[in-house]
Amino acid sequence: MNAARTLQSLHKPLLRLQTPIYDFLLPSFAHTQSRINHASITTSSASPTSKSSPSTPTSDSTTKRRRPLSKAQQQFLDSALRVNQAGELAATLIYNAQTPPITRAHPHLRPLMHHMYSQEAGHFDTFNHLLARHRIRPTAMYPVWQAAASVLGWGTGLMGKEASMACTEAVETEIGGHYNWQVRVLLGWVKEMEEKGEEIGEEVRELVSTLKRIRDEELEHLDEAVGEGAKEAKPYEFLNRVIRSGCKGAIWISERV
Q1: Burial class (CB in 10 A: 0-12, 13-18, 19+), 213
Q2: In the predicted model, is pLDDT for residue 195 greater than 50?
Q3: What pLDDT digit, counting tens, does each position of 110-142 carry?
């Protein structure tokens, strides 16, 4: 443990100075405890094998059942968090590549580009932590998405402000919708647990809240992009269709690989 703490303290300052791309490796190294059971994400209170004493009043929370995640629910969470981490990686790289040419040509956009990049970097850190905490592997396509996102950001950045904003609009349309779908699925689990008298674990409430916040911030980026002339890009329809199709394909692959 002392050696682990020493190595962690040596690596942490270095990683903070670099891009967030490899930050997901740090939590997985630093948190040496065994993998947290998926049931902690979704379920309840007291153990079902515990028996209340006749002289001790039983509260509502201790009578609720503990139910582990089904295999399908485990697979959903694994793939959802893996996709989200890959998507936020791509977003940080797109903004990182777009920012230099865009802010040189349009200095007034520097605060906006910084704001959007900072939020995406925060999202990326969030999912790095969740993957490491629950020992979920990143997508095997990680290097491919790194290269593709960098090329997309660089290319649309050189095409100009409108093309860059059209890229943001297309990406955030797909990503925002995907987050919304994930929230609906988790809320469906919550409703089902409530109907069965099972207590909602704090982690699932936190996860729903986190996904809602990130979804809203992604949709805020979409609105900002439209306000900065996304639909004036030439050729707008082509860019929108190609980028959205690419996002859908990347989501589909990252869920599985």
Answers
A1: middle
A2: yes
A3: 999 999 999 999 999 999 999 999 899 999 999
Q: How far apart are CA 230 and CA 223, in angstroms?
A: 10
Fill in the DSSP letter of residue 229. T
Q: In degrees to the nearest 10, what's the CA dihedral of 196, 202, 207, 208?
A: 50
Structure tokens at 58: 């039983």
Say which residue the tokens 């996709």 belong to: 83
Q: Which amino acid is at 242?
A: V
Q: pLDDT digits over 80-118, tens only?
A: 999 999 999 999 999 999 999 999 999 999 999 999 999
pLDDT tens, position by position, 23-43: 333 333 333 333 334 434 544
Find out whether the peptide bond into 235 is cis, omega within 30 degrees of 0. Answer: yes
Q: For the chain, how big is the Rg over CA atoms in Å?
A: 21
- The predicted model scores a pTM of 0.74
Which residues is 204 bridged to in the sheet?
A: none
CA atoms of 26 and 88, how far apart (whole Å)? 17
| Burial of 18 from C-beta contacts in 10 A (0-12 / 13-18 / 19+) | exposed
State the number of CA atoms in the 13 A half-sphere of 239 facing the CB: 24
Q: Which of 144, 129, 146 is nearest to 89 (CA)?
A: 146
Q: And the tokens for 76?
A: 């959903």
DSSP state of 46: S
Q: What is the C-alpha separation between 35 and 136, in angstroms, rounded?
A: 10
CB of 120 within 8 A of CB of 20?
no
Per the document, the length of the chain is: 257
Q: What average pLDDT does the segment 185-194 reach?
A: 90
